[in-house]
Amino acid sequence: MLTNRSVSEPGEGPATAQPSRAVLITGCSSGIGHAAALALARSGLPVWASARQPESIADLRAAGCRTLQLDVTDEQSRQAAVRAVEAEHGTVGALVNNAGYAQAGPVEEITPDMLRRQFETNVFGLMRMCQLVLPGMRAQHCGTIVNVGSAAGLMSAPGAAAYSMTKWSVEALSDALRYETRAFGVRVVLLEPGGVASTRFMETETASWPSADGLYNQFRENRSRRLAVWTRDGAPGVSTPEDVARVVVRAVTARAPRARYKIGMGPRLLPLLYRALPAGIWDAFWARLMPMN
């Protein structure tokens, strides 16, 4: 069980008898993170919602969450957030690693800096947050880490190589970490949502597309039209942020959560087809959906 502790450094300090129930969530300004913060707070847990711009989550404070400034790519910001939770609750009882974005674009036009930024947020920031909360969780022999992955970590799609690379990395990290921490009472859970209706996420993805010489402009337009159909609210097989938030609550509160939660039809069906179909058929499938010209 986790206990309340008073600390000056993440994961350090004397232990007391009561387990921490505090949940720290990254990336709460919109979408899954915002919905998860609300759902966890309504379930009665003390929730620390974070975002790079704290003013973007003022409504979560009004809903009963504590709010923090947290940029997962900045070490000082990461440590300060963990310290704030530990100072009040002794340790972080559960960490929900949700912060992330999608860098879109064809491989030829993705610059090294674009790829580095994508990994800094989606992988390195996530991994470092795990490292900062683990000493406290180990000391209490209790804790839960929920990593928000994606169906993109199970199969790649045209125009999403950079994003898929990071989500495949989160798959590998979560598998290794789950085994490494089980003896310490720490549970590691990976969420694999498919399409999620999120206007902000899609706007960010569209805006991230590299500005190049126009070789892939038609592909970009065709892909954007297809994604708009796939991710619109109410589309078949598309989850809402609230759907994913309910699974987050389940993963955080379960005594024995699953290693993985596949959310929606996409991560259940498409990876099976991806591995079963010959590459030529799969490529023809994408060519029909997202023609290059």
Secondary-structure blueprint:
Blueprint: E1 23-25, H1 31-42, E2 47-51, H2 58-62, E3 66-69, H3 75-89, E4 94-97, H4 112-140, E5 143-148, H5 161-181, E6 186-193, H6 199-207, H7 217-230, H8 241-253, E7 260-263, H9 266-276, H10 279-289
Parallel strand pairs: 1-2, 1-4, 2-3, 4-5, 5-6, 6-7
**Strand and helix order:** EHEHEHEHEHEHHHEHH
Rg on CA atoms, Å: 19 Å
Low-confidence stretches: 1-9, 12-16
The share of residues in helices is 40-55%
Number of strands: 7
CATH class: Alpha Beta
CATH architecture: 3-Layer(aba) Sandwich
Task: Name the overall outline.
Answer: globular
Structural category? alpha/beta
Largest sheet: 7 strands, parallel
Q: Tell me the count of domains.
A: 1
Bin the strand percentage. Answer: 5-15%
- Under CATH, the topology is which? Rossmann fold
How confident overall, as mean pLDDT?
Answer: 90
Keywords:
293 residues; alpha/beta; Rossmann fold; seven-stranded parallel sheet; 7 strands; 48% helix; globular; disordered N terminus
Describe the structure.
The protein is globular and about 60 Å long. The longest helix is centred in the middle third of the chain and has 29 residues. The chain has one domain: Rossmann fold, CATH 3.40.50. It is α/β, with parallel strands linked by helices and 293 residues long. It has ten helices and seven strands.
